[in-house]
UniProtKB/TrEMBL annotation:
This is prephenate dehydratase. It comes from Pelagibius litoralis. The record marks T181 as: Essential for prephenate dehydratase activity. Residues 13-188 form the Prephenate dehydratase domain. The lineage of its organism: Bacteria, Pseudomonadati, Pseudomonadota, Alphaproteobacteria, Rhodospirillales. GO terms for molecular function: prephenate dehydratase activity. It is an enzyme of class 4 (lyase).
Length: 291
């Protein structure tokens, strides 16, 4: 479980999953530099820290530009009891970290979170390194430091290297230059961003009725009303593989007429529609992608 920093008031604390130096920690520091970060063991503990009043916000990774969705998170979000109030896009630059004095030729295994290893798979294959999965990137760096074995390296952030006293053997080893992770910021209370002051994102989940063309019909309202769907993913939620839940992001506020009409049509063809958050879109969405 998480333990709140003694010197900080809960309203000035933001929780993340992982140990200090994780990319989620970096995202917290980048988006909320005035707040104190709170390390949590699991996503469930991160949500609980906010629900229990130990932290004001939770910073949750949701997808990566090269490795796709973060495992399990879509199942956990609807039951978290929290609301999405913001988003943050964090550029991810992976470093190959090892104990001081180790050389690149000595390294045989590379340790990290499965997402980070996936984002560097071409590098590790080319270099002949054996990947070893860990719960998080900074945790892998911490273990490599504690073991003191020059044959082991970690894929983690430069911040993790600084915290755990590791040296960078190879910088920026991610396979894709624009490697970026999207995070969502969650809180106990929802917000109602202004509709006429920039881009608004609405995130929701829904289940379609078990009839032919149900998904096609449920999404038709977004097309006819000109509402842009920026994300749509499905995942199975029952043991018989017959019930799918969809996770979606759209551009627009539910109170806007065209968005309201699209959501009404969605509700007609769906078993359940649950809005997880309405929040300002990040400035990153309007920037051109480099690389």
């Amino acid at each position: 479980m998480a333990e709140a920093p003694a010197a900080a008031a809960p309203e000035n604390i933001i929780a993340f999953q992982g140990v200090p130096g994780a990319y989620s920690d970096m995202a917290c520091r980048a988006a909320f530099p005035e707040m104190t970060t709170l390390s949590c063991v699991s996503f469930e503990d991160t949500f609980a820290a906010v629900r229990d009043g130990k932290a004001h916000y939770a910073m949750i990774p949701i997808e990566n530009s090269s490795a796709g969705r973060v495992a399990d998170i879509h199942h956990l979000l609807p039951e978290s009891g929290l609301h999405i109030v913001g988003e943050h896009f964090q550029k991810v630059e992976h470093q190959l970290l090892a104990v001081k004095g180790a050389s690149r030729d000595q390294v045989k295994t590379v340790h990290s979170h499965v997402q980070a290893l996936s984002q560097c798979r071409h590098y590790t294959r080319r270099e002949g390194l054996t990947p070893v999965t860990h719960a998080d990137t900074a945790g892998a760096a911490k273990e490599v430091a504690e073991l003191g074995d020059p044959t082991r390296a970690a894929v983690a952030s430069a911040l993790a290297g600084e915290i755990y006293g590791l040296q960078v053997l190879d910088p920026n080893i991610q396979d894709i230059p624009h490697n970026t992770t999207r995070f969502i910021v969650m809180a106990q209370e929802p917000i109602d961003p202004p509709r006429d002051n920039g881009l608004v994102i609405t995130t929701f989940v829904f289940r379609v009725r078990s009839v032919p063309a149900a998904l096609y019909k449920s999404l038709g309202g977004f097309a006819t009303n000109g509402v842009n769907i920026t994300k749509l993913e499905s995942y199975i939620i029952d043991g018989s593989f017959t019930v799918a839940q969809f996770f979606a992001d759209i551009e627009g506020h539910p109170d806007e007429r065209l968005v309201r009409l699209a959501l009404e049509e969605l509700s007609f063809f769906s078993r359940e529609v649950k809005i997880l958050g309405v929040y300002p879109g990040a400035d990153f969405r309007s920037k051109p992608v480099a690389g």
